[in-house]
Amino acid sequence: MDEGAEKRLLQSGDSCSLEPPPYQVPAYPRQSRRRRRLFMRSVLSIRTGLSFVVAASVLWLCFAVDRQYRAQSREDGKASPRLLQQFEESLAQCRGLNRVPGRPEPGSRKSNPRWSHTNGQAGVVVLKNATLFDGEAFIPHAVDIVFSKGIIEAIHKTADNVKVVSDDDVVEYDVQGRYVTPGLVDMHSHHFLMTWPAAEMTDDTNEVNPDTKAFTPSVRAIDALKAYDEAATLILSGGVTSSLLIPGSANLIAGEGVPVKNSLYSGEHSEPVVEDILLERGIPTDERRRYMKFAFGENPKRTYGYTRLGNAWHLREHLQKAKELKGKQDDYCSAILEAHSWRESRKAGFVHHHGKFPFQLDLESTVAILRGQVIVQNHNYEPEDLETMLRISHEFGYRVSGFHHATEAWQVPNLLKEQGDNVTIAIFAEFSLYKSEAYSPSLYAGHILDKNGIPVAYKSDHAIGLTNAKYLASQAAIGHAFKLPEEKALQSITSVPAKAIDLDFRVGYCRPGFDADIVVWDSHPLSIGATPLQVFIDGRAQLDESKVKESMDTTFTAALAGDSNISFEPQVRYDVSDKQRKQTCSQAYEAGQSFIIDGIQKAFVDNYPELAASAAQADNEPLKLVVEDGEISCFGAAASCTEAENKFRANGKKVLHLSLQNGHVLPGLTAVTRALGMTEIATDESTGDGQASGQKIGDPESLVYAKYGLWLDGKEFARARLGGVTRAISLPTADASGFVQGVSVEFLTSGKKSLTNGAIVRGDVALHLALGDITKQSEGTVSSGVQHLRKMLEDGKGKHNGTVYGRVAAGELPLVVHCNNKYDMSQLILLKKDYPNTNLVILGGKEAPYVADDLAAANISVILSENRPAPDVFRDSDAVVGPPLTRSVASYLKEAGVTFALAIFETAMPVDYRIHDLGPEAGWAAKYAHISQEDSVRLVTSNVESILGLDKSKDLVVFEGNPLNYGASVVLSFHADGETGKLEVATCFPREDEHGSSL
Ligand SMILES: *[C@@H]1O[C@H](CO)[C@@H](O)[C@H](O)[C@H]1NC(C)=O
Question: Which residues does the annotated region (Disordered) include (predicted)?
Answer without folding.
Answer: 1-30, 95-118
